[in-house]
Amino acid sequence: MSVNKKATMTVSDASKDPMIGRQLGDYRLTSVLATGGMAKIYRAMDYQLQRQAAVKVLSQEDIDLDKTLTKRFQREARAIAALEHDNIITIYQYGEQDGVYFLAMKLIKGKDLAQELKRLKRAGQRMDVRRALHIMEQVASALDYAHAAGVVHRDIKPSNILLDENDRAILTDFGLVLRASSETTLGTAFGTPRYIAPEQAISSNKAVPQSDIYSLGIILYEVLCGDTPFNGESPMEIALSHISDAPPAPRSKNPDIPPAVERELLKALDKEPEKRHRSATAFIQAVKKGYGVTTLEVPVIAPVEPPPAPPPAAVPPPAPRATKERGRLSRKPVLLVATLVGLLVIVGALIALGGGGGSGSIPGAPITLIYSDSTFAMLNGGDYTLEVATLKFIRGEDDAADDYYGDRIKRDVLPPGACARIVLMERQVSAPPGCGAEHSLEQLADPTRFFWRTETKNGSAVSSFSVVYQGRVLVTCPTVPRGGNSECRFNWPVAPTPTPSTN
């Protein structure tokens, strides 16, 4: 599930959520990601594997109202588990614990297609055609794979298409999945009206693979034209339009659409399933041909590579990928001796620093933490990209629900001169001075989980938090009470050769 999907609950509701801090299977729930439909989505942490996840939890109230809900939920878990595809969400765990049904899935860093389309619409723009086709091609591949396995999704819509930071599309939310060969529909849910196929609107168990292709056609229509073809005052009115009304000609909405593309769109939106394309990929390939596109030049975001073999000052324990470097050093005794000497220098410097606040004598990037009771910012004042995946902020007890990990920062890195921010959800807070390039922004709903705030635990106030990198405390900073603010400075240890920003 997507990291940036906005929760619909209020801050006060989130702070009272009894599920926060609860352990379900291997995962401890830490914050709310989203609510809606039959479930609530939480961010969670597997502390054994040090892996985050999105955990979908069924609402007990909805279970009481719909006795088929648990069966549908189990069916969703089994359907996803059986589909191993790069563009289908990965499932980690499914289970029931003390009457709570949960499904743990891979946490996708990015947004969903619905959010991206809204952003473009607010800016008065349409998505670049090549980018749109790149996304649609991936979704089509996922759909054809599912259809070949006898699975019909039945709820294809933009909010169920997640986009990571490289525009890799991930199909998710198989809550209405139907195994066309052997199952009938459960419950009354039949899909989302704006994207539903005519035959599915008539009867949910009539859905076929071409029903998903129809929904994909509606999405592409929206991408190219700026809106879906059918809208109305009620879900029933929209569903009836899908059943009986012809969609407005796409070129009447966007004259830049080639006639051949219009023909393929209208074919995908035919009222009769058998008249649509035989596969989702065939549909998108036909649209590409209509645009005269044979290959898609997808923007490439350079991966973040580890720096070259570090100078003689690497902070232990080394990351796994440093193993090869150790192998090289073992073949070069002179470099090995130099590295060992450097390690001794760093250990001595760390002991001298003592983990206290302020900037120490360790060489490296100057880091500034600026925070109030509702916002936190980490500024990289150095000239190289920080790899922050193993960075950890701890308030009080380690591995508590208010710990914060650096892998939640965009692409697990913080470029030179950039800052990563955390803000209270729905609170408009400007970036602090010096934050010239906001690299990462995360909104959290529960301020009691803010690691930089003073909170009372076991009868005493926790007045500090620690910044830990690769298992070593870099600095201990004071927490702030409500209405307070503070700064904390330290040096990121061991500056490697400067590398260009990946921002």
Walk me through this protein's architecture:
This protein has 503 residues and is of the alpha+beta class. The chain has 3 domains: 96 residues, Phosphorylase Kinase, domain 1, CATH 3.30.200.20; 182 residues, Transferase(Phosphotransferase), domain 1 (Orthogonal Bundle); 174 residues, Immunoglobulin-like (Sandwich). It contains 13 helices and 24 strands. The strands form 7 sheets. It has a 6-stranded antiparallel sheet with strand order 1-2-3-4-6-5. Strand 5 and strand 6 form a beta hairpin. It is globular, with a radius of gyration of 26 Å.
Outline type:
globular
Q: Count the E strands.
A: 24
Bin the helical content.
Answer: 25-40%
For the record, the CATH architecture of the largest domain stands as Orthogonal Bundle
CATH superfamily of the largest domain: Transferase(Phosphotransferase) domain 1
Share of β-strand residues: 15-25%
Q: Output the CATH topology of the largest domain.
A: Transferase(Phosphotransferase), domain 1
Oligomer: single chain
Integer-rounded radius of gyration = 26 Å
Indicate the structural class: alpha+beta
- What strand order characterises the main sheet? 1-2-3-4-6-5
Ends apart, CA distance between termini: 23 Å
State the low-pLDDT regions, or none.
4-15, 179-189, 298-362, 495-503
Main sheet summary: 6 strands, antiparallel
Summed over residues and divided by their number, the pLDDT gives a mean of 78
Please tell me the total number of domains.
3
CATH C-level category of the largest domain: Mainly Alpha
Helix run count: 13
